[in-house]
């Protein structure tokens, strides 16, 4: 199996996403405006830029996208070009509608300082139905726009988000985040319902993995939170099993006489299927025959330890990862894991 990651991630050249933090820690130099707060001219310029960059991406026009990108992104555009091309099947014939737009002002912040933006009205206990928060580490001073679009095509609905930086009177392209809003016709609400049902049956591992997928399908970008995402995060945390790897710590999985160090376990989409990904530490993945045997052993041991997984996933993918970060993956359909 191809060892590259199964889910597409779009990582901006000049941003590193930070962890969520409390609104009380907001820096006064950072301000945010929602669409309703902006003057008509600013709102039009931002939403038009978002729609323009959607058109470029959906048509695979990487030349125009690069020409309109901020210098730090344009200088190394090969990765972005690959991502845009990979998105073509989902966006072919898509029509997009702007859902919301935000203007993030970071002009008075010290260089590369942590930036937190709280948009709209917050209540005593946190977010409200019309609020949003954005979190960044190492964000250069400047003004940024986030435009969220819903793209509908014959393949389904896609969450399409554009990040742009103001340069003069123009909004230069910074990054794009493209995420399916559904998996095999199922949206976040469906996965949330399934998670609660698994929880009610005592299948806590299935519940946790389905909570994760529900959160993924409701979050257009990794650096934004809303009332809906905060509620889902709080509910899911109460269901997190204690025997899964977390916080950089591994867990042991015994297969026969061998103990494998599991580094992460999470759901992921392969084609139209929801599969379970199991990553573990390996001394050396260059011996692919041995790596394959280890992968099969890990998958069998995982399903033996947690038989409930058969009710929740189409297949399991085991990925052996060595100390250099190289990995080797194997996929087995659940029916073939015995």
Describe this entry's structure for a reader.
It contains 8 helices and 14 strands. Helix 5 (188-200) runs antiparallel to helix 6 and helix 6 runs antiparallel to helix 7 (227-237). Mean pLDDT is 89; it is low at 1-28. It is of the alpha+beta class. It is 30% helix and 31% strand. It has a 5-stranded antiparallel beta sheet, covered by helices on one side. Strands 10-11-12-13-14 form a 5-stranded mixed beta sheet. Strands 1, 4, 5 and 9 form a 4-stranded antiparallel beta sheet that branches. The longest helix has 19 residues, at 40-58. The protein has 3 domains: 16-180, Nuclear Transport Factor 2, Chain: A (Roll); 188-237, no CATH class; 251-336, GMP Synthetase, Chain A, domain 3, CATH 3.30.300.
Number of helices: 8
Q: Can you tell me the CATH class of the largest domain?
A: Alpha Beta
Number of distinct beta strands: 14
Chain-averaged pLDDT: 89
Number of domains: 3
Low-confidence stretches are 1-28
Series of H and E elements: EEHHHHEEEEEEHHEHEEEHEE
How far is the N terminus from the C terminus?
20 Å
Radius of gyration: 21 Å
CATH topology of the largest domain: Nuclear Transport Factor 2, Chain: A
Content-based structural category: alpha+beta
Strand order of the largest sheet: 2-3-6-7-8
Short description:
Helix content is about 30%, strand content about 30%.
Strand-helix topology:
Layout: E1 16-17, E2 31-34, H1 40-58, H2 62-67, H3 71-74, H4 78-91, E3 95-105, E4 115-119, E5 132-137, E6 143-153, E7 156-167, E8 170-180, H5 188-200, H6 204-218, E9 224-225, H7 227-237, E10 251-255, E11 258-270, E12 273-281, H8 288-305, E13 315-321, E14 327-333
Parallel strand pairs: 12-13
Antiparallel strand pairs: 1-5, 2-3, 3-6, 4-5, 5-9, 6-7, 7-8, 10-11, 11-12, 13-14
Helix pairs in contact: 5-6, 6-7
């Amino acid at each position: 199996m191809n060892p590259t990651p199964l889910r597409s991630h779009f990582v901006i050249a000049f941003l590193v996403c930070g962890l969520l933090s409390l609104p009380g820690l907001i820096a006064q130099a950072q301000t945010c405006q929602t669409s309703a707060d902006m003057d008509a001219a600013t709102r039009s310029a931002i939403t038009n830029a978002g729609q323009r960059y959607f058109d470029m991406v959906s048509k695979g026009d990487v030349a125009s996208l690069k020409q309109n990108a901020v210098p730090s992104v344009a200088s190394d555009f090969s990765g972005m070009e690959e991502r845009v091309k990979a998105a073509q099947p989902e966006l072919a014939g898509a029509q997009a509608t702007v859902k919301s737009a935000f203007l993030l002002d970071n002009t008075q912040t010290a260089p590369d300082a942590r930036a937190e933006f709280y948009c709209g009205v917050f209540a005593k206990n946190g977010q409200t139905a019309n609020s949003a928060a954005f979190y960044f580490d190492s964000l250069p001073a400047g003004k940024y726009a986030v435009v969220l679009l819903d793209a509908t095509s014959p393949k389904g609905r896609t969450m399409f988000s554009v990040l742009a930086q103001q340069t003069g009177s123009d909004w230069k392209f910074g990054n794009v985040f493209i995420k399916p809003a559904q998996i095999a016709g199922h949206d976040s609400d469906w996965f949330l319902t399934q998670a609660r049902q698994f929880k009610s049956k005592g299948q806590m591992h299935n519940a946790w993995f389905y909570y994760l997928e529900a959160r993924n399908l409701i979050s257009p970008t990794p650096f934004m939170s809303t009332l809906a995402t905060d509620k889902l995060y709080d509910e899911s945390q109460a269901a997190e099993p204690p025997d899964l790897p977390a916080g950089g710590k591994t867990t042991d999985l015994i297969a026969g006489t061998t103990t494998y160090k599991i580094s992460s376990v999470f759901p992921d989409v392969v084609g139209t299927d929801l599969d379970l990904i199991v990553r573990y530490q390996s001394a050396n993945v260059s011996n692919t025959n041995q790596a394959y045997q280890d992968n099969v052993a890990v998958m069998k041991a995982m399903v033996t330890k947690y038989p409930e997984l058969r009710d929740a996933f189409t297949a399991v993918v085991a990925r052996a990862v060595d100390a250099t970060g190289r990995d080797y993956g194997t996929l087995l359909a659940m029916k073939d894991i015995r």
